[in-house]
Amino acid sequence: MSYYHEGVDENAFQDNLLAWYRENQRELPWRINQDPYRVWVSEVMLQQTRVETVIPYYERFMEWFPTPEDFAKAEEEKVMKAWEGLGYYSRVRNLHTAVKEVVESYGGKVPDNKKDFSSLKGVGPYTAGAVLSIAYEQPEPAVDGNVMRVLSRVLLVTDDISKGKTRKQFEEVIPTLMGGTPPSEFNQALMELGALVCTPKSPGCLLCPVQSQCEARKQGVQQELPVKGKKKAPALKEMAAIIIKDSKGKFLIHQRGSKGLLARLWEFPNTEAEATSSQKVDLETFLKEEYGVEAAAGDSVQNVQHVFSHLVWDITVYEGTLKNADEIKGNCKWVTMEEARKLAFPVSHQKILKTIEEEEA
DNA sequence: AAGACGGGGTG
DNA sequence: CACCCAGTCTT
């Protein structure tokens, strides 16, 4: 790694950073204490997710599941509902598995050593370092995107931060930079600086407490850092979905499998089908073969465009007429709107749910 | 080492 | 529209 570590005055860096953090840190619900469970939940929610988005989810999660024991015994439906709309749903399935293990194998106490804590589902190098430092005051690095951006500028690191190797190099530099400062404050200060001042587009160098320790600032290249490889464009998937109601006004929904995209979430029956081909016939064949449901696809009533990080769904939604569902199979069920509201749907299918709700109103 | 895995906010 | 966000797991 090419960095100018020897060029940075560590004592001045620590003093300036911590003084700034003590004055400028935000009041956040997971900062009211250092309870390891609360810190852990916040760190998982915050993965790839903005603070403002997380706050309401976090508050509700802590109302529903105040302790590891409460969460461990929760039903899967409620666990998924707690995460509905947050994305990256494997986070909550892994967290549930991990907290159950904490209750069963560690007496409900979150492990305070790296080996045990890191072995839990969904706990990677960042989360391990964050919880051990923030909740247990251990001098572990917690290197996230904010920290890499700040340090790539302060230390003038030009390596690609999307590479795993680069993150490890930053982790090796942290102990020296952290020195004898309180680990919880130091790590959070670095992240807070990245979130509030040392931002991606136009960093607020004039307001920055460590601008005189920043190599990129000295050379005027802060805008060019960090270096990050480009992502490829998401692939397009054309889908057809259908709304089918039975004689009692209940509609048919399906639960996705336990692996892959949107695992364990509920959805309207749908299949990949190019809009140029006959989507209606594809849908009818799919329903009969996969769910044992005979129905006729009628007019299209809605079009849903949904963008994921790696693909785009273009869903044409049809209205269906039920003919026969005596031999229903697959993970399907008929639900009322009230029942559906207790289940977790991906945002793309919440849009379809909304259409039905408006029709019924 | 690269790709899968969500959703929303920003310039 | 492109990029980013308190990353981890699988292949």
From TrEMBL:
EC number(s) reported in the record: 3.2.2.31
Keywords: 4Fe-4S, DNA damage, DNA repair, Glycosidase, Hydrolase, Iron, Iron-sulfur, Metal-binding
Keyword Metal-binding: yes
Top-level taxonomic group: Bacteria
Needed co-factor(s): [4Fe-4S] cluster
MF-aspect GO terms: purine-specific mismatch base pair DNA N-glycosylase activity
Cofactor binding: number and manner: Binds 1 [4Fe-4S] cluster.
UniProt xrefs under PANTHER family: ADENINE DNA GLYCOSYLASE
Role of this protein: Adenine glycosylase active on G-A mispairs.
Protein family: Belongs to the Nth/MutY family.
Name used for this protein in its record: Adenine DNA glycosylase
